[in-house]
Amino acid sequence: MFTSDSVRYLGEDSNGSAYYAAKNANNSEECLIVITTDDWASGCGRLPVKVTISDTDATLAKEPLSDDAPGEHVGDYVTVSTSP
Fold it and tell me: Is the separation of the CB atoms in 83 and 55 below 8 Å?
């Protein structure tokens, strides 16, 4: 479960998946929530937090991404890579 007032929309990737950051219910961990057209997944922990859904790996970083960070960037803190 997530603390509802902590949920923040981070952006959408080129496949239309949406990314959100939140705190877990006891406010002790950061969470990444990924919503695709067919499913959703989440992961919580200390940053960075990684979530895998279908053939997509998404990572919520601790610091803003540098321009040369690998993968597709969603907002300032999420990288996305898709397996072929």
Answer: yes
d(CA 32, CA 67): 21
Cα–Cα distances (Å) from 3 to 17, 21, 23, 28, 42, in that order, read 21, 11, 6, 10, 14
**62 half-sphere exposure, CB direction, 13 A CA radius:** 5
pLDDT digits (tens, 9 = 90+) for 69-81: 999 999 999 999 9
User: Domain range for residue 31?
Assistant: 4-82
Q: Tell me if the pTM is above 0.85.
A: yes
Number of structural domains in the chain: 1
Give dist(CA 69, CA 36) in Å, integer.
23
Output the six-digit token pair for 54: 């279908």
